[in-house]
Amino acid sequence: MGLVVQKYGGSSVADAEGIKRVAKRIVEAKKNGHQVVVVVSAMGDTTDELIDLAEQVSPMPAGREFDMLLTAGERISMALLAMAIKNLGHEAQSFTGSQAGVITDSVHNKARIIDVTPGRIRTALDEGNIAIVAGFQGVSQDKKDITTLGRGGSDTTAVALAAALDAEVCEIYTDVDGVFTADPRVVKKAKKIDWISFEDMLELAASGSKVLLHRCVEYARRYNIPIHVRSSFSGLQGTWVSNEPTGDKVEQAIISGVAHDTSEAKITVVGVPDKPGEAAAIFRAVADAEINIDMIVQNVSAASTGLTDISFTLPKAEGRKAIDALEKAKGDIGFDSLRYDDQIGKISLVGAGMKTNPGVTADFFRALSDAGVNIELISTSEIRISVVTRADDVNEAVRAVHSAFGLDSDSDEAVVYGGTGR
């Protein structure tokens, strides 16, 4: 048997009983002949509680010390899990991200992995131990400071270790039974997907699906590491994410799923001179503030004024920073005003079959129209259609589109064991 990397999210190790349940599953994999490396998140809502505590002490905590604080949650999980495994008669060693050789850049709170040197992990495995690694963290290459990887960082840690250790599979354990055709908290009749391509999973993740984060899938595709998303609360087979179907031949569906995201805001730059270089100046100001943007729409300029409006979406948490950056650049750009709207939602239809099946776009917009949902922005790729609507319309829009494309399940409702769907 080969090496397996398993990752357990916060809901899976939320309390002592959860930790003991996870320990039994890990020991079972070891008994089946696998070498096992485990990546753990912080228990339950520990990270959120630490963030709240930091904000009570300081409204703007320093990045270095903030990372030092946040990484404590995973260290607690890894130590407790190692104890639980030893209590079952097996040897386990726990490692922080830096001890595991997770090397990152120096950007605090959202560092990126640039290398993994898992020498100590290999030694632990060669000695017959189970290796437990704290997710979500690493050490900067230049200053040797502790860093955190941002939201979903434990998933990325797991895939990066799987690639570095040449693992057979990276198993992501969560509180749902796999990847579904929609968020099971919104669509009770969502279907579990048996297999999905990296390409489709990347689009779903980028569009708001919370089971896997975009960076994790991107890393897995780059190093061709199959991901098995499954629940730590049941023994059911989950969803395989890979280049090719795993096991029995699975036909790729025309539509893989419907994703939604209510964490974005919209900024409209009003009265922009319609001449070369203006859009570049707007987006340079946003980029210099280290803000990623998503959808962009420019109106046709008014003939009488020669002015146009440019709208774009961005993470809601970055809204204030983006407005400040654009206001500072207003004199150079020459626009009239800014409009900010954080009561929006994005709905995305994803499927590689769109490339060869005419009518998908028409059916998508017909479903939204029949549901009485008004569209504010539209963006497409080869395998995705995304629209921005009012936040209040998102859930109804997701259910309408899901039903219109025949994605509703006839069997039991999807189960969210831990309550978060992650």
Descriptive terms for the model:
422 residues; alpha/beta; Carbamate kinase; eight-stranded mixed beta sheet; four-stranded mixed beta sheet; 13 helices; 20 strands; ACT_Aspartokinase; ACT_dom; AceGlu_kinase-like_sf
Helix amount, in percent?
Answer: 25-40%
Shape: globular
Biggest beta sheet summary = 8 strands, mixed
If you compute it from the alpha carbons, what radius of gyration comes out, rounded to the nearest whole angstrom? 23 Å
Which topology of the domain at 3-175 does CATH recognise? Carbamate kinase
Number of strands: 20
Mean pLDDT: 92
Class inferred from helices and paired strands: alpha/beta
CATH architecture of the domain at 3-175: 3-Layer(aba) Sandwich
Q: How many H/I helices?
A: 13
The H-level CATH homologous superfamily of the domain at 3-175, spelled out, is Acetylglutamate kinase-like
